[in-house]
């Protein structure tokens, strides 16, 4: 199997750069006239799969909304990931896991090991117990040709308290995360398999020039981020590495599969310049 960065690069060239979220928030379930139950969750996920599968570079289930239903929700997530994986669509589990030692290793096995029912093509992780704490996930992702997206600079106001703090060497913590990720991608021929998460509504972003990996950019659409923000934050030289992540902007078009696909195509057109 090719490494994740190469597979993502190929998917983006073929299907465009967009990543679409499956975020079964209770309010969305109600808006789609679905019950806030595991059965409603399954219907929501099935509609999303039908609408998005094969249409975008990557699909990102928000793990928390499945976990909220307990074991029944996790079972729905397992089935959703399995269907997407079987069709060849890349799956990013938005789990934002972060811990130390054997606990981090267990999280890594859940999302990145070949024998896990939750195995995905990539997973989001938090480095704020120290970048080195991610070693079990980084190592397993490398060994199984999967990917990791490391939270670097998020749009929420509280994030700046940590991410914009300055280290003794003058770099911000967020910049350090990007630099550590870049070191992992050194020598990659296409995109490296260690990406970062950078919010599209930030006033400014870390220097991404040497990342050589994918840049997942949430905050597009309802949250206010757009194509101009992407250009401003990453610079022209990094545009082909950007993966805009859109969820609510598209999901509010449901539950019609046709309307959801139309919303996907509209967003894809807005960001077509990324792969031009």
Automatic annotation (TrEMBL):
<dbReference type="InterPro" id="IPR018089">
    <property type="entry name" value="OMPdecase_AS"/>
</dbReference>
<dbReference type="GO" id="GO:0006207">
    <property type="term" value="P:'de novo' pyrimidine nucleobase biosynthetic process"/>
</dbReference>
<protein>
    <recommendedName>
        <fullName>Orotidine 5'-phosphate decarboxylase</fullName>
        <ecNumber>4.1.1.23</ecNumber>
    </recommendedName>
</protein>
<comment type="similarity">
    <text>Belongs to the OMP decarboxylase family. Type 2 subfamily.</text>
</comment>
<feature type="domain" description="Orotidine 5'-phosphate decarboxylase">
    <location>
        <begin position="17"/>
        <end position="263"/>
    </location>
</feature>
<keyword id="KW-0665">Pyrimidine biosynthesis</keyword>
<dbReference type="Pfam" id="PF00215">
    <property type="entry name" value="OMPdecase"/>
</dbReference>
<dbReference type="InterPro" id="IPR013785">
    <property type="entry name" value="Aldolase_TIM"/>
</dbReference>
<dbReference type="GO" id="GO:0004590">
    <property type="term" value="F:orotidine-5'-phosphate decarboxylase activity"/>
</dbReference>
<keyword id="KW-0456">Lyase</keyword>
<comment type="pathway">
    <text>Pyrimidine metabolism; UMP biosynthesis via de novo pathway; UMP from orotate: step 2/2.</text>
</comment>
<dbReference type="InterPro" id="IPR001754">
    <property type="entry name" value="OMPdeCOase_dom"/>
</dbReference>
<keyword id="KW-0210">Decarboxylase</keyword>
<dbReference type="InterPro" id="IPR011995">
    <property type="entry name" value="OMPdecase_type-2"/>
</dbReference>
<dbReference type="GO" id="GO:0044205">
    <property type="term" value="P:'de novo' UMP biosynthetic process"/>
</dbReference>
<feature type="active site" description="Proton donor">
    <location>
        <position position="96"/>
    </location>
</feature>
<dbReference type="InterPro" id="IPR011060">
    <property type="entry name" value="RibuloseP-bd_barrel"/>
</dbReference>
């Amino acid at each position: 199997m090719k490494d994740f960065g190469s597979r993502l690069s190929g998917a983006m060239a073929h299907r465009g750069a967009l990543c679409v979220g499956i975020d079964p928030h209770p309010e969305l379930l109600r808006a789609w006239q679905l019950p806030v139950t595991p059965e409603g969750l399954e219907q929501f996920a099935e509609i999303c799969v039908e609408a998005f599968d094969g249409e975008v570079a990557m699909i990102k289930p928000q793990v928390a909304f499945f976990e909220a239903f307990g074991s029944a929700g996790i079972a729905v997530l397992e089935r959703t990931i399995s269907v997407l994986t079987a069709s060849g669509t890349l799956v990013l589990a938005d789990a934002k896991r972060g811990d130390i030692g054997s606990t981090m290793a267990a999280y890594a096995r859940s999302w990145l090991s070949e024998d896990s029912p939750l195995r995905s093509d990539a997973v989001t992780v938090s480095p704020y117990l120290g970048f080195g704490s991610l070693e079990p996930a980084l190592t397993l992702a490398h060994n199984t040709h999967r990917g990791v997206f490391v939270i670097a600079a998020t749009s929420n106001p509280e994030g700046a308290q940590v991410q914009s703090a300055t280290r003794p060497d003058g770099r911000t913590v967020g910049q350090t995360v990007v630099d550590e990720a870049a070191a992992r991608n050194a020598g990659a021929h296409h995109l490296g398999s260690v990406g970062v998460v950078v919010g599209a509504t930030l006033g400014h972003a870390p220097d991404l020039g040497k990342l050589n990996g994918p840049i997942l950019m949430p905050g597009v659409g309802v949250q206010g981020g757009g194509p101009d923000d992407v250009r401003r934050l990453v610079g022209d030289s990094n545009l082909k590495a950007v993966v805009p992540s859109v969820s609510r902007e598209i999901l509010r078009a449901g539950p019609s599969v046709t309307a959801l696909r139309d919303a996907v195509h509209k967003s894809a057109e807005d960001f077509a310049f990324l792969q031009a």
